[in-house]
Amino acid sequence: MTEIFTGSFTQQEPIPQDGIDAAMAVLQHGRLHRYNVVEGELSETALLEQEFAAQMGAKYCLAVASGGYALATALRAVGVKPGDAVLTNAFTLAPVPGAIASMGATPVFVGVTEDLVIDLDDLETKLPQSKVLMLSHMRGHLCDMDRLIAMCDAAGVKVIEDCAHTMGAMWNGVPSGRQGIIGCYSTQTYKHVNSGEGGLFITDDEEIAARATILSGSYMLYERHLAAPGPEVFERVKYVTPNVSGRMDNLRAAILRPQLRDLEAQAIRWNQRYDTVEAGLHDTPGLTQITRPDKARPVGSSIQFLLLDWSAKAVQEVISRCAARGVELKWFGGAEPAGFTSRYDSWRYAASTAMPKSDRILAGIVDMRLPLTFNLEDCALIARIIRAEVGAVWQSGAACD
Ligand SMILES: *Cc1c(COP(=O)(O)O)cnc(C)c1O
Asked: Residue of the nearest CA to atom 14 in ligand 1?
């Protein structure tokens, strides 16, 4: 009998009941705007910021409209100007180069390794080209952060972390997003907490925090923040920082607070799913698994493997055979951007130089979501299907056609 998987790869869990209750309370009082508070009231948004800062061990936190907005705000807050070069990963998603381009700045792409992290040797040669690295922990893979930070510090390059896929992850026991000068997170539906849209921004730098707060559209109401620097810091920046509205509202914040309290438990559940699929794919001929450094504790909300040096036709064959059995794989090597996936050379607004070593890896990356609505039996079944279909195409010899 041919096994078929019938689950949905895009179905997340419901919002926890205490999130629904908190959202109902906001709807009932009607004060959705974060600065719309009655005497003595602390807004859901301000409380979310206070709690997330404490959870991450950061001094300051700002809640915003999206992860992409957090990234663009980070660039503005560190002083990136139109025409500046900003280093970033070749293997990432469109909002990252998009945030850089939205500033009129120019992305300079850094290659990817077989472990799916930024190529630190390539980075080393490119560091002199820029003062800022927007580091994307794409699909939750953390590079050797000790080496990266040492290199960037030595070169005077500021690191902005894109933690859209590493909320809840750790490097050497420290939350991801705390190694760089700014950590940016997304609370969009497909990330680790779900408010539909939303983003979070953390830093220990008081001036960056004040600038980001004004940028986000705080008008002169910044004293209503609970995780922002004191008024004296705002005095220094308030006349020279434009308002680029992108605030979070109280409804989203209300939904997020209970989810953030569950983050560690959810990370463990995700990693059980990841480990189950990973174990099921061990030693599949033709398939290369991704190794991760011992110091990394990722959150396995998706899994990747490589079909390295396979022909495009054979990769496509694996993807369609798996799709026919209900397993939705995404391929990063496709010539045309599809769904959420695209390649650095499909972002044609940003000039790029070919990176043959990275191109070889990108051409082999196969990617799959692991929503928490899958149970461990689902994950084992998915792994059996992938294993069988990769094996069938591999044995037919089509992989090298
Ligand atoms: C989702 C995502 C973002 C931005 O998030 P939005 O909230 O959708 O703007 C940034 N980087 C990566 C890698 C992402 O996947």
From this structure: 164
